[in-house]
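Need tokens for this chain, all 274 residues.
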Amino acid sequence: MNTAEQINEKSTGNTDAGMNALTGLFVKCSREILKENLMGVYLHGSAVMGCYQPKKSDLDFMVVVKENMTDADKRAFMDSVIRLDAAGPAKGIEMSIVIRNVCDPFVYPTPFILHYSRMHTAWYRRDPEDYIWKMNGTDSDLAAHFSVIRGRGVCLYGLPIAEVFGEVPEEDYLDAMWDDIGGAEEEITENPMYLILNLPRVLAWLKEKKILSKKEGGEWGLGSLPEAYHPLLRSALKEYAEGINEQYDPETAKRYAAYMLEQIRAEKEQNKGD
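Here are the structure tokens for all 274 residues:
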């Protein structure tokens, strides 16, 4: 029986034990399929930053290989990931596979050879050959993922993080973060919790070079931002912690986004001058 087919109700990502079971199965699948090509499997995101919330989180994996994968290995890997994802948390599994030679020295924008998140499930099920053929390229967001792995990630299998991931230049990390939040004024009413907590994460890094989780970003905001925005931050923190859906005043959210982007732009300029 394939490892991914061993999933049962106790293996779902809806509990800490379930999360640990899924990470173990992900590693086992990676080792079985990639064999000697596998250099390491690394966990990052909320699962290693103390704020994993099954109703609001995903499980973030980075897989590093020696050389490109065959299409057959990509297909086998994706089949396993799809099955594991079905037992995952609300947002599922997000994973990227990269070749080691883009990790150190760091290459930006960073090439990847395979990627998956739950938004791609239907595409893969509909046409797996097309998915495998097209799901590769470069991703600026990997600069942020690599930075988090270097700062707070966990090696689940393989070479230690320090031996695989080289330093990410600050300008590349900032560019990746800006890609994520640059459209906040237009997007915050569609995805309020995510942006309310992510905006102070970016500002905290610019001011203090701290790599924070969404929860820590919101808490930093409560200690550093005007009180007028504290109710917004508290609501977002509550939603994230409890897995509920909070209601946000759209005008207040837009004002908050505009204020935060102004602060972030100012700090970016200040950093250029230093």
